[in-house]
């Protein structure tokens, strides 16, 4: 997966915004104003920081050498994944979905209902 494919997939999800809140090279994707993915555009190889269940985060780091605790993030809840690691696009999308879903589930029930995530 390249950085543009990552961007297109993230912004295709419901209620996602993209911005550069920290600097001009760190692209941040948010759902309902909460981050679920960050990509440093100047970093080579390209990588993405994704929110992750703490137990799964450890499991992924132990299994894959290209998954590490996210730089400048809470390493208990965030991983960095190199996009050129050889993972399939579907696998990376699955991890993006996991991050997005964790953030949606962390929203208040009122906010989830307001955005149409629950009825």
TrEMBL record:
Matches recorded under InterPro entries: YjbR, YjbR-like_sf, YjbR/MT2646/Rv2570-like
Species name: Wenyingzhuangia fucanilytica
UniProt-recorded name of the protein: MmcQ-like protein
